[in-house]
Design brief:
6-stranded mixed sheet; alpha/beta; 5-stranded mixed sheet; D-Maltodextrin-Binding Protein, domain 2
């Protein structure tokens, strides 16, 4: 074989290799071949039950293992920074919650930017809160609670699960919007906060639905209102906080999924389509409702608009209340 012939063969081999690699890259970018290996689903603060449920369904659908990796430290900052710096190929997901839109304002220096460094995939669910009080409190409505707080300035304690949490900012929203003087009292989690409301050491709190509902049903606390746009099917006689006359204290939390920015649009679309399908499954909806979550499933564009609005809402509350990170 002559040198020229050898060179021609070599060129053909290299060309074939490059063409194959290019085709594979195009296939991956288009989302057609994705996923071809295990996916890591990183979760920050809060329970990982939703991530595990969605992850198992993705595993069943795509035949690739979804490994849930919980990193609760620093209020989700570690988890978010890990995903923001990951390779943008769809193999690292972030389970986001309402904590992330709060953190965007609460912390002046974050190692990542939520809107710049992370791309929204889907809003999976929203979570309402119950405004609960100790049953001995002489207030059977939100308006009666406000009147009582005005009659006893600085004497009613609003328990919450820690500084900068959604429940904490709920206390501040009620305080500002109703122009009342209530004392914000932090606890190390929702359980000790509810225990003190039951015991009477604190008089009221905003408890996430899954945490507060069992105690309302047992009669250990009284529910005056539910946050969010609609009443709870579990408590149909409890009005929304807007219906109860305190629209300025209306808020929700949420659960969603983000990926690193610059992840190919086709991969985001494939993830979004599958998650939108999953949250409509009867067994998934039943489980989510049992966790106090209202299934959503929207487009990446709708989720991006939701994130922007949520950041703006909490930024105003944090500024008006003078809340600082501890």
């Amino acid at each position: 074989m002559t040198c020229i012939t050898r060179l021609a063969v070599l060129v053909l081999i290299v060309g074939a290799f490059v063409s194959t690699a290019f085709a594979q890259n195009r296939s991956t970018d288009s989302g057609q071949a994705y996923p071809t290996k295990p996916i890591r689903f990183i979760v920050g603060p809060g329970p990982d039950v939703l991530a595990r449920m969605i992850g198992q369904h993705l595993t069943d659908s795509w035949g690739q293992q979804v490994v849930v990796d919980q990193r609760p430290g620093a209020g989700g900052i570690i988890a978010a920074d890990t995903v923001a710096k990951a390779i943008p190929d769809g193999y690292t997901l972030l389970g986001t919650t309402g904590s992330y839109t709060i953190n965007a304002t609460l912390y002046s220096k974050l190692p990542y930017d939520l809107e710049r460094d992370l791309a929204p995939v889907s809003l999976l669910a929203t979570a309402s809160f119950l405004l609960i009080v100790n049953p001995s409190l002489p207030a059977k409505s939100v308006q009666e609670l406000i009147q009582l707080a005005k009659a006893k300035p600085g004497q009613l304690n609003c328990a919450h699960s820690g500084p900068g949490t959604t429940a904490h900012l709920g206390c501040e929203m009620l305080k500002i919007s109703a122009k009342i003087d209530i004392v914000s009292v932090p606890y190390k989690g929702i359980v000790p906060a509810i225990i003190d409301v039951i015991g009477g050491q604190a008089q009221l709190m905003f408890a996430v639905m899954s945490g507060g509902l069992p105690h309302v049903e047992s009669g250990k606390v009284r529910a005056l209102a539910v946050t969010g746009a609609k009443r709870s099917a579990a408590l149909p006689n409890v009005p929304t906080i807007t219906e109860a006359g305190a629209p300025g204290a209306d808020f929700i939390s949420w659960n969603g999924v983000h990926v690193p920015a610059r992840t190919p649009h086709a991969i985001i679309a494939k993830l979004n389509g599958e998650m939108a399908r999953l949250v409509k499954l009867p067994d998934v909806q039943k489980r989510m409702l049992g966790l106090g979550l209202d299934p959503v499933g929207d487009t990446p564009e709708e989720f991006a608009a939701f994130i922007k609005a949520d950041i703006a809402r909490w930024a105003k509350v944090i500024k008006d209340a003078g809340v600082r990170a501890e």
